[in-house]
Specification:
Number of strands: 18
Strand content: 5-15%
Helix content: 40-55%
Number of helices: 25
Number of domains: 5
Shape: flat
Radius of gyration: 37 Å
Largest sheet: 7 strands, mixed
Length: 743
């Protein structure tokens, strides 16, 4: 089967775009081939800094002939309908259509449309130029004289050549000819920009890869990554060090070179006084280099790994020297920030937060810190932390935001704050909380476990959520600019993984009132300014202003409290959805979550809810659980049908005097016992015991349905039996709302 080789050769493609661009090229071309009827066997795409390459294997030489039958209007339909049908089917006369009879719909016209097969080369020659012109680069440019013309070719960087060949393994491949802008396709590409820049004629994928390799170009992105990683580790071993691996940096560096050459640079030992992450980030961000860890001390070594794109005649001495000069300068900057920041106590840095706006409607960072500190202090007893330490940690947690180091490297917030705290002799628990209160950052990140860190982390995330709910800035669709979903999941994970039992609804309600009070205070200040302007201009007198305020304050206060409660309820509903997602990721069924939440009446105890869901899931996996669920649903279906028929509910206690069969009395007694035992077990948080209590209903429920006719002839007996059935949901309600459970 023939294969397609396509290369788009250009100036530098940004490293961050290469892998996605290769995938896009593969998807666009292969989708186009399939739509044209050319079903291929396999495809591979890759990229270097100067080229996108696609190899499609097993492409048929010609697409098959296709035919389809298109149904038209009824015989005798209006002329306009016939004209539309002829146009859509590509017919010139209605005589070219056949008449088909349908026993129900009568006679109608039908056209048989035959699409002849096409040569693959023709399809490719039409497909590729269209893809090149509409390629979805995040950013693209025009260039040269043609750039002034409307509709001229755009590419991420100037496009210089296109290789496009097609053919089988045993024959000379065909060069597929087409033109895009002023670029004509061909079979010529170019090697390494500096070491082998001459033109190279290629035929198909195997000789293309070999010729590029001979011209100092390693085509495959993943192979370049492996080469860099392998050589870097080997170089590190010669220094008795180990490489500090960085997958993101490795991907980026592999996208910067076509012929990776790994070298080692050094920096002055005095810079090792800086925190490790400061050194790593400085070298990573400025020079795209890896750092090494000393095998003996476990701290960073005074060396770094750089990746060149050339085999230099001097063995890389000049390249290493240039990188060392830049690294030395950047580390000197970091050293200056570190020394300067340390001269000021963190508490003094924190005072400058009053000049930093958190949000236009929520005030400054300093005001937010006050809210978080109060909440952390309230949370401290619940999580086993010292209230004073939790409050102090919260007051210092954001202090590093105004330091020079975080101004240069925002990624260091929290991390560098902890190091400043440690260097200034602040309590280790408080110092740890400064860094850890941001955690967990993502689903794979660890949660804080130290009590002070937990208190501040919970307070920080809860304040973030409550604050933005207070001003009605909630996530919508895929938009979540303030990472509120992440914050909610963080709260849930911290609570569950630490086994905490905070009264979440109470915390949210209290904090919502606090935030709304602050907003109201700011609004009152603005309102006072407006009244003052009206008073000064003579539009309102002092008595009139006092009268307006006096008349509206009671109504405004009532509205304020009601609004805060509504926002709190909405936020708690948001927690429910995040909890469902979190438990779903862990394998819990959403219907079981709904069943327990409906029984629990809220999300005030996340740990309790998860334990109940686990117990319910285990119960329903047993035969007793499945049979009881089936009996519950049978009772619910009968009740629903009879209530609809009578137009009323069968509520209230059944009358024992109307029991006619032993199965009725047995079921009534079992329901009473199960209800009481389940409620006692739930109150004692013995969820397995609660499930065992309701499981005892299985046999009497089965016996009732086997022996008893619910719709008895006697209306009083019928109603009594329906009341008995309605007691089954009441008995299981303490465990879960079984109506929410599927299956």
């Amino acid at each position: 089967m023939p294969e397609l080789l396509l290369e788009l050769f250009s100036e530098e493609i940004p490293a961050r775009m290469q892998r996605r661009a290769a995938d896009e090229l593969k998807q666009l071309v292969t989708n186009g081939l399939v739509e044209a009827g050319l079903v291929y066997e396999g495809a591979m795409a890759t990229a270097t800094p100067r080229r996108l390459c696609l190899h499609v294997m097993g492409v048929p030489g010609r697409s098959p002939e296709r035919s389809e039958e298109r149904k038209g209007p009824r015989v005798g339909a209006p002329e306009k309908a016939l004209e539309g049908f002829l146009k859509a089917a590509g017919l010139t006369s209605i005589d070219q259509a056949e008449i088909v009879s349908d026993p129900k719909k009568g006679d109608f016209y039908q056209a048989k449309i035959v699409t002849p097969g096409r040569d693959a080369a023709t399809v490719i020659a039409e497909l590729v130029p269209e893809i090149v012109r509409r390629f979805p680069w995040p950013k693209s440019m025009r260039w040269g004289a043609a750039s002034a013309e409307s509709g001229s070719l755009r590419w991420v960087r100037p496009l210089h050549a296109i290789v496009c060949t097609f053919g089988t393994e045993n024959e000379e491949p065909e060069v597929i000819r087409f033109t895009v802008g002023d670029i004509e396709s061909g079979d010529v590409t170019y090697g390494h920009r500096f070491m082998a820049p001459d033109a190279i004629t290629v035929r198909r994928m195997d000789d293309y890869v070999a010729k590029l390799e001979a011209a100092k170009v390693v085509l495959d992105l993943d192979r370049r990554k492996q080469m860099i990683l392998h050589d870097a580790k080997d170089r590190a071993l010669t220094l008795n060090c180990e490489l500090v691996e960085d997958p993101g940096l490795l991907e980026e560096v592999a996208g910067l070179v076509e012929w990776p050459v790994v070298l080692i640079g050094r920096f002055e030992e005095r810079f090792l006084k800086l925190p490790d992450e400061v050194i790593r980030l400085t070298i990573r961000e400025n020079q795209k280099c890896f750092v090494l860890r000393d095998g003996a001390t476990g701290r960073l070594a005074d060396a770094f790994v750089l990746t060149a794109n050339i085999e230099a005649a001097d063995g890389g001495t000049a390249i290493i020297g240039g990188n060392e000069r830049v690294v030395r300068a950047r580390l000197s900057d970091a050293e200056f920030f570190w020394t300067t920041d340390l001269e000021t106590p963190l508490a003094e840095h924190a005072k400058r937060l009053s000049a930093v706006t958190f949000h236009d409607k929520l005030g400054s960072q300093a005001e937010r810190v006050e809210r978080v500190a109060a909440l952390a202090k309230a949370l401290a007893p619940i999580v086993g932390a010292d209230p004073e330490q939790a409050e102090q940690a919260a007051r210092l947690a954001k202090a590093d935001l105004v330091t020079g180091m975080v101004g240069e490297f925002p990624e260091l917030q929290g991390y560098v704050g902890r190091r400043y705290a440690e260097a200034q002799g602040i309590d280790p628990a408080i110092a740890a909380a400064i860094e850890e209160h941001y955690k967990p950052v993502g689903p794979s990140d660890v949660v804080p476990t130290a009590p002070v860190s937990v208190a501040v982390a919970l307070a920080d995330k809860l304040d973030l959520l409550v604050s933005f709910w207070a001003i009605d800035e909630k996530p919508t669709g895929s938009k979540d600019p303030f990472a509120l979903r992440r914050a909610a999941l963080g709260v849930i994970r911290i609570i569950l993984e630490n086994g905490l039992r905070p009264r979440q609804a109470l915390l949210v309600n209290r904090h919502m009132l606090r935030v709304r009070l602050e907003i109201k205070r700011q609004e009152a200040i603005s309102l006072g300014s407006a009244f003052y302007e009206l008073y000064s201009a003579g539009f309102l007198g002092e008595r009139e202003i006092k009268s307006i305020i006096h008349e509206n304050v009671p109504e405004m206060d009532a509205l304020f409290i009601w609004e805060a409660e509504i926002r709190s309820v909405d936020l708690l509903s948001f927690f429910v959805e995040r909890l469902k997602n979190q438990l779903g990721d862990q394998g819990a069924r959403h219907d079981l979550v709904d069943a327990v939440l409906a029984s629990e009446q809220g999300v005030d105890d996340l740990l309790l809810i998860t334990r109940r869901i686990e117990a319910l899931s285990a119960f329903l996996a047993t035969e007793d659980g499945q049979n009881l669920l089936a009996g519950y649903k049978r009772a619910a279906n009968i009740l629903r049908a009879e209530e609809k028929k009578d137009g009323r509910a069968f509520a209230g206690e059944p009358d024992p005097a109307l029991y006619q069969e032993a199965e009725e009395r047995t079921l009534a007694e079992a329901i009473a016992v199960a209800r009481d035992k389940a409620a006692e077990a739930i109150a004692a948080e013995d969820f397995a015991g609660a499930m065992e209590a309701v499981a005892a209903l299985r046999a009497p429920v089965d016996a009732f349905f086997d022996k008893i006719l619910v719709n008895a002839d006697d209306p009083a007996v019928r109603e009594n039996r329906l009341k008995l059935l309605s007691a089954i949901p009441a008995a299981t309600a303490a465990v879960a709302d079984f109506s929410k459970i599927g299956g």
